[in-house]
Amino acid sequence: xxxxxxxxxxxxxxxxxxxxxxxxxxxxxxxxxxxxxxxxxxxxxxxxxxxxxxxxxxxxxxxxxxxxxxxxxxxxxxxxxxxxxxxxxxxxxxxxxxxxxxxxxxxxxxxxxxxxxxxxxxxxxxxxxxxxxxxxxxxxxxxxxxxxxxxxxxxxxxxxxxxxxxxxxxxxxxxxxxxxxxxxxxxxxxxxxxxxxxxxxxxxxxxxxxxxxxxxxxxxxxxxxxxxxxxxxxxxxxxxxxxxxxxxxxxxxxxxxxxxxxxxxxxxxxxxxxxxxxxxxxxxxxxxxxxxxxxxxxxxxxxxxxxxxxxxxxxxxxxxxxxxxxxxxxxxxxxxxxxxxxxxxxxxxxxxxxxxxxxxxxxxxxxxxxxxxxxxxxxxxxxxxxxxxxxxxxxxxxxxxxxxxxxxxxxxxxxxxxxxxxxxxxxxxxxxxxxxxxxxxxxxxxxxxxxxxxxxxxxxxxxxxxxxxxxxxxxxxxxxxxxxxxxxxxxxxxxxxxxxxxxxxxxxxxxxxxxxxxx
Length: 519
Description:
Residues 218-519 form the FERM domain. By secondary structure, this protein is of the alpha+beta class.
């Protein structure tokens, strides 16, 4: 079995909303609240008991003296009552302590949930209680804001889940209420949390501040290949899958299989420029750091679905990625006479792809720009200029969009097109000459000789059993990857050292998850 699990399927019946009058919070309180249990021993009339239980799930101005749920552990009981006071302070039902502001209150509550899973239900019940029949609208909105965060970060237990789901459904089905939209958001958060496991990192203060000011979404620019910028807004619990779908629909790529061939990359723009593909079930805000050092870009990772060029953005994005990969050595090219001919044709097409260049010949500087960096030293600039000049005299110029399409059709015929390529400096297998290249596509990992550009080894992805990243052996050394592959009868291990070890590891993880999804 591969060590990468596929995405969870649609949520099971655990998240479906029970029909009828069952599973209200009053039912839950009657069965599980500490005070309801003691009430059931008293000889009061049915209606009085009902009224008393209803009050247990309604807003109170007085702090609770014991946890709502029964805990045999006195520490949990104490933490629960302390949390209720923090909740009241945040909602404005109690005055704050010195040096306790709203953001601190939220942090204390979320941190407690993170540390004590057994208190999830208690905290859910406390917030639901304080937003029910609360006469103060400002206080209610604060409570819902907290519920919005709770549902995205922490799941209630399987016991509370149907009651919490029913509560949110009832709250979202009343369009006249001020909180019906946020209740819908909470429902969506809970569903995503169930499917994808919730956000990993607690929100930054600036994110909470924005939520308190009513800004539920953050502006984000996605850098697309070819210099296209896509402006969007991401909410607190937007997952990569949703954003990919939105971008792909703008590009005219709406089919699920094609959408799954794209990936969003988080690029940390510090000294070592960390690049990490974001899995489709991961939350974008877990990557968007406070320091604005993270850029999110789009890239096509898998090339299974045939390309179609009826959409301008689609054409520009794919052309942009292929040109960049071709010029920056991401598509392996072999040296030789035939390659020089190809470089000439591709230089001419790049020139025509620019607007209003159909009737001019490229300068020597432009020709150098149009030549892959890895081939610049081995191709004579004069010979290239002569070749391109001859091509221009014998061919009808193309419009930019047609030149881009022809360029792509040309590049897609290269033997190493479609592989994500990495420069590797050391390999444990002594039969492989180094430095060399490793290429990864949807089917396999290939090892390519750095000089001859011939394939020296192939590892089918289905044979990959396990892999892990390795720390550098020495100071200033390179990180690495260990690959375990082959069959149980004949297991094999290979380790390699390369500067992009983490990027290559995460790329393989994402490809495995995406291809598994469509098998």
